[in-house]
From TrEMBL:
Protein name as catalogued: Transcriptional regulator
PROSITE patterns (alphabetical): HTH_ARSR_2 (PS50987)
Entry's Gene Ontology molecular function annotations: DNA binding; DNA-binding transcription factor activity
Keywords in alphabetical order: DNA-binding, Transcription, Transcription regulation
Matching Gene3D superfamilies: Winged helix-like DNA-binding domain superfamily/Winged helix DNA-binding domain (1.10.10.10)
Pfam family, one: HTH_5
Organism, scientific name: Propionigenium maris DSM 9537
HTH arsR-type domain location: 1-91
Transmembrane spans: none
Length: 98
């Protein structure tokens, strides 16, 4: 259980992978659509997608020549929203000097 949790958090611990998960949100996209907002090559993006798939965050389904990716469990998005709230609170406190 702990190993899986570590793998889950490690896979989310990269800005590009966070951006991918956020972009997928509640829609299915192919690599070409994901690549529009990422400054990396398709092969680099594919490596990030593999990490997210291997950790169980994303699933990919082949449709014709494309693989369509989606978030497997939307609780991951809820977890990211909670983490964002925690970070915002810490930043506000730091600005206020608490």
């Amino acid at each position: 259980m702990e190993d899986y949790m570590v793998k889950l958090f490690k896979s989310l611990g990269h800005p590009v992978r966070l951006k991918i998960v956020r972009k997928l949100g509640r829609e299915r996209l192919c690599v070409c659509e994901l690549q529009e907002d990422v400054e990396f090559s398709q092969s680099n993006l594919s490596q990030h997608l593999k990490i997210l798939r291997d950790s169980g965050i994303l699933s990919g389904e082949k449709e014709g020549l494309k693989v369509m990716y989606q978030v497997k469990d939307f609780r991951v998005l809820e977890m990211l929203d909670m983490a964002e709230g925690i970070v915002e609170t810490h930043l506000k406190r730091a600005i206020e000097g608490r």
